[in-house]
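Risk register update: the risk of archive-format incompatibility is retired. Evidence:
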Amino acid sequence: MGEIAYKIAVRGRAGIRDVAEAAGVSVATVSRALNKPDSVTPVLRARVTDAARRLGYLGNGAARALASRRSGAMGALVPTLDNPIFAACIDAFQQRLDAHGISLLVASAGYDAAAETRGLRTLLQRGVDGILLVGAAHEPETWALLPPDLPAVVTWMHRAEGCALPCIGFDNAAAAARITRHLLALGHRRIGMIAGLARGNDRAAARIDGVRAALAEAGLTLAPPLLAERAYSVAEGSAAMAALLALPDPPTAVVCGNDHLAFGALVAARRAGLAVPADLSVTGFDDLDFLAHGDPPLTTVHVPAAEMGRRAADHLAALAAGKEPPPPAELEAPVVLRGTTAPPARRRATPRRARA
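Archived output:
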């Protein structure tokens, strides 16, 4: 690596030939591994990407952008676009960027760590002027790719421990605690949770922490049988709710980690012959429009997706232009009370009056 490092130092940046030499492959193989990763074996792909990461190689698009200092485009790296809440954020992000005269490139990872790293590499190869990230729980390979001088913001969180990037978002734990306290105030003591998968998802983990904290305030715990971690989908929410209802002592209320899980939970409750909220209370987390018009309409947490997108655009546009960005601020994520929560049935029951 000594000779390669010398060449890079002379030129000021790594080239594709440097990566090929470091990985012990041809230039064509490097190109295939980085641009069409499925066309090479996993072992070869790992060897090439590791060499590229170590050398700081991004690709010709990024090199051109670095030479001109501006590409006129921002990148957004999101877990998925198969969810209206992320689509709402990206739509607002794009509209505000357009007002700044900036275009948008999006990479969607499908909640897959390797795909996320590839997506970020692609955005950097296109020479974007800044990056929007969702959350701060990313693989070391992803963080290693991110140039330290590239403007970037973390959304969906108001702070991220150990992350130096500005955060534009809300307190997931506090929001989950608020909606749990609402259920506690109604009289629920047997409360379950259908959460998102916490591994690699700091937002899902924070929501679990928030529910646990609120229950602890009331002297309660989130016992393992009452916590189900599932992928964010209606089907997974339905399956998790069916399992909770099959417990010997099922919950009287269930907090869901997002609205898709909550919708699935409502489907399972109806299939089980339960009336919501008469027999069971259910809450969501997102405030998706179609569930506000359900029967009954969903009690949930409003996620300020569009506002996060707009503020992220303003922040990145200012940084890219060499201006002072507006300071990051914690956004509100209020509980939206609708029709899926009520006191537990045993508390609402009115004792029969004794006959005279």
